[in-house]
Amino acid sequence: MNYPRQKRDPRTGLRTSATLATVFTILGHTVLGFEQPVAQVFVALGTGYACALFFEWVDARANGDVPGFMGGGIRKALDFLLSAHMTAITLSFLLYFRQRLWIMALTVALAIGSKYVLRVRQQGRLRHFMNPSNFGMAMVLLTYQWSGMIPWTFTIEIHGVFDWLLPLAILILGLRLNLLFTGGIPTIAAWLATFIALGAARAWYQGSPVAAELAVLTGLPVVLFSLYMITDPQTSPARPRNKMVFGAGIAAAYSVLMLLHVQYTMFYSVTVICALRGLYLFALSLYAPVAGPAPEPQQQAIATAGSFVRAPEPQEAVTVD
Question: Does residue 316 lie within any of the structural domains?
């Protein structure tokens, strides 16, 4: 007898990715040789939790709703904070601001704030369209280029076989996460295929070696970027065909920015494509069907009573969000 396949809880994917990011951060500061001060992690997490709770409370208050972290005990509050934890802890090791910890706090605040400000209506609900972690990074790197940098050396303290084992483990875990929870394999495949094709085209156009254009793919940051950032299910399309267009678009934007000699190209390319997708979704929302006639008084009373309980919002399964 064939039983219907149970749908996986997206919160499980988010819990898994948040746990992996936390373990990676702890190992980074104890074994791998992360360059950032440990204080940057605590500043990022503290800011992330505070902003998530405050912005959610303000948003719920403005809409006459109940904050998403209330009404389910400590477990619901912890699940609510998982997304903020993921965003904050990944930003803590993706950026390096030396001793300027206030810029780290600003980056996390911008990232989480974008989820409440940059939204479009889809299927009757407001959803954010900018990848939070990427948006925070892009805005701060654009504004404070004199202060921030990307610490590309994540594994300076390991050598020999561990130089291969660590990226392999991250690759396997990331593929499993995307296969089981995010459905992001089409995005990854399209991003890599288009990146390689356009890299070869840039090499031909500029008269440079193909290997020089594609060498960036061998770095651990690109593995993290490909598996854990661009596949964020809350800010990428749902249909496989649209996922492929999304991934290819990121690679195309990357290639254009490379030809323009723009620094931090990967992160700006995601910002550009997410913004274009947001504009597209906004245009679609303008032509969405208008609401039906007002309900009868009895139905209105039921709807009003039900408005105090927020429908469960799908959690983000990834984010270097």
Answer: no
258, amino acid identity? M
Cβ pair 234, 314 in contact under 8 A? yes
Structure tokens at 320: 């270097």
> How many CB atoms sit inside 10 A of residue 189's CB?
16
**pLDDT tens digits for range 250-286:** 999 999 999 999 988 999 999 999 999 999 999 998 8
Whole-model pTM: value is: 0.83
For residue 108, being part of any structural domain is answered with yes
Q: If you ran DSSP here, which 8-state letter would residue 296 be given?
A: P
Residues of the chain with pLDDT under 50: 1, 3-4, 291-321
Give dist(CA 86, CA 317) in Å, integer.
Answer: 10
Determine the length of the chain. 321
Q: Dihedral through CA 138, CA 139, CA 144, CA 147, nearest 10?
A: -40
- 94 burial class (0-12, 13-18, 19+ CB within 10 angstroms)? buried
Inside any domain, residue 309: no
CA distance 266 to 210: 18
Of 319, 315, 320, 321, nearest in space to 12 by CA: 315
Q: How many CB atoms lie within 10 A of CB 231?
A: 30
Q: Which helix (H) or strand (E) holds 286?
A: helix 265-286
Total of domains in the chain = 1
The four Cα atoms 159, 164, 169, 171 give a dihedral, to 10 degrees, of 130
Distance, CA of 181 to CA of 9 (rounded, Å)? 8
Give pLDDT, residue 310.
37
Decide if 312 is inside a domain: no
316: left (phi over 0), alpha (psi -120 to 50) or beta: beta
Range of the domain at 34: 10-286
